[in-house]
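Quick one: structure for this chain?
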Amino acid sequence: MTRAIHRVQYEYFRTVLISARKVSGLTQIEVAAKLGRPQSFVSKYERGERRVDFSEFLELADILNVDIGDFVKLYRDRLKGMPEKRMLPHKRPK
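Got it. Here's what it folds into:
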């Protein structure tokens, strides 16, 4: 199984996150400063060398002034064009 950091879905997540940073007008250095982290932290998750966990995502959303619901909608919209076999399986109701 492919590691989650290398899955196409995570690639889409990263591109939406990068777009959100650019739309916010913040540089990697500015985001890093607000997180209290080095610039390399932001660079690594934007390049896919490091995963962003959920709590970090929430903190980034606040810094970037991103509505989480809008972010999820944009992410899902980007996934719509993916071939079904490459998408994560959805849980089915029991």
